[in-house]
Structure formats: C-alpha cells, structure tokens
Design a protein that fits this description.
Shape: globular
Oligomer: single chain
Strand content: under 5%
Distance between the termini: 52 Å
Structural class: mainly alpha
Length: 387
Amino acid sequence: MACAFPPMQTVSTGLVVAVVGFFSSFPIVLQGLNAMGATAPESASGLMMAAIAMGLAAIGLSFWYKQPISVAWSTPGVALLAVSAAPAEGFSGAIGAFLCAGALTVVAGLWRPLGRLAAAIPTSLAQAMLGGVLLPLCIVPFKAAAELPWQALPVILTWFIAGRVNRLIAVPAAVVAAAIIVVLNAGDSSLRPEQLVAAPVWTMPSFSLASAIGIGLPLFIVTMATQNIPGIAVMRSFGYTPKAGKLFSAVGGASLLSASFGAPATCLAAITAAMCSNEDSHPDPALRYWSAIMGGVFYCLFGIFAIAITSFAAHADPRLMGTLAGVALIGVMSNATFAALEVPEEREAAVLTFAITASGITAFGLGAAVWGLAVGGLVYILGKGLR
C-alpha cells in the first residue's frame, strides 16, 4: 500500500535515525578527512556532501522500491582513513582513492564475480581488519582522560551512563556533553550567520597505483564487508527482498558523484536499517519505507549546516574530538572483535590480521590494512588446506 504523505510515526522514526546516524559518527568522518590532508573548507564540504549523498540515496531508493532502504556513510571506512597515511599527492590523491572505491562498488553490483569475490572474504578476516583499524582510535579516550581529564572524563562518563539507559542515545549524549565543554572553553569566539551554511568545495582528483591499492581497495573491502552486505542481510531478516546488485551499484554511484566534493564512501546501513524496518517504525510493513525517506530528508538538512559542525570541532581540543570519536567506535570494535574470534579454526588468521592492521605499518607503499588482510588471508588458506 502506497501513501502520498509520510505517517507521523515514520517522521519521528526518521528523525531518530538521522540523529543516531549523523551524530554518532561525524567526529570520525572529520578525523578521516583531516588525516587525508583536507583543509577546513574541504572537511566541511566532505561532511556536507557525505550527508547529502546518503540522504538523497535513501530518499530515491526507498521511494523507488517502496522498501525501507537506509543509507549511511561508511563509518568503518572513515575510521580506516583516520589511521592511514595521507597519499603523496595530498587530498587530491585521497579523492582519487575515493573514486576508485566507488567505482569498485558499482562494478561489484553490475558484475557478479566481483560481488561474489567481495562476499567471499571470510567474515572473521574482514572483521579482524576492522577491529585492527579501530583499536588505535578506541584507545584515544583513555589517553585523553589522563592528559585532559576535565574535558575527556565528562564525555566518557556521559557516554557510559546514557548507554545504560539506551545504547542508541549514548553517542548523541556524548556529543552534547562535548558541545557544552567546547562552549565553556571557547571564550569570545563565535560563528557568524554566514558561516552556518556549508558550501561544496570541488577537488580535482589525482590517481596513483599506491593510493588505489593502499586506500581505495581497503576502503572498498571494509565498506562491502561491514556495511553493504550486512545491510542487505538486515533488510532480509525483516522480510524485505531488495535487489542487492542494484543497491550496491546505486550507493557506489552516489559515492562517485560526491567523492570529488570530499565524501569518502556512501553505503547501505545496517543499524539504522533495522530501525527503519521493525514494527516501531510503523505497524504496517508496507509503509515503513517512509522512515528511511524521512531519515534521508533529515540527513540532507544536517549536511547543509555542516560548516557549523566543523567549526565546533575546530574550537575543540583535538584530544576531546578524539575522545568523542573513540567512544563512538567502541561498540563497533566490540562487535568486530567478537565476530573475528567467533570461529576457533580461524582465530590464528584473524589475530594476525588484527595485529598487523593495528600496528599501522607501511611497506612498499601499502598500508597496514592491506598487509593485515594479505597475511591473514594466506594463513587462512593454508589452514584450510591442511585440514
């Protein structure tokens, strides 16, 4: 049953989806862009276009298929960027890598062998790589608690206490606590009205084999394995039957269109997909797609005001922003570590993948995530061959 106007229940669900999806991970998006060499205007543009890309994709796909297709930016992907070395070409090289990852996602949707190859990467290794990427980021809050206790500890405690009430409000509550701390420490600095609305900044991409393999390929792998494929699985668990290939190509296309404005990767969501697909979204499963549409509308609105958010981050101590990003990723790392070690026969390969990725090494122009997955994959294959 179609509906010309969104039911009010789906409007409120969409708002909650957007608040959780945006405010639980925007600090790590900014950290990832900064690590890639983005300037302040480029970071604001990247955050804005990432939010607008996922908002428009959610609106278009949900309306077209009449299913609750929730779309997100790749939180694991931007976490990978945050612990990776910037390309030799600077931010333009990162843009080239973003385009490579988006193109691979489009091809994975159109060409089944690549899609099957991405899906064939063992879950334990993909999750171990993600856990290794996240470990250095999740340590930051506790280092900051020792170095900057009056700012970091209130954020950590707010996150912990709010999480005991409802896990979904834990990170947004920590964002509010951090905002209060920033305001109290900002002195006379303030935003002028003309600084509130972000403007897109186009960056001409540059391409190199090193950035494509060292950044683009891991960004594609971690996004496919931890976002796109689980996103399809979540929808199917609620009785929806999306066409996986077409959705992969659609979010890959959104990535291609937004990459040159600084957006790293657009992908299918998993957590917010569950929020849009369950009975709390709407009693009628045929109307739940409105929750994903309204979530997309609110994502776009948040994106327009990205400059205010990046200005807030600029006034904060970097250790405070690191604390905010770290607590936002602890739950993701917990799930990734559990999934990595769940199968006893695969634990050795998973631990090697985790340890090498977490080491942050760079060799022959390739980053730790590539080496971690390569070594872990070799051990995994040898282990299977000997059994």
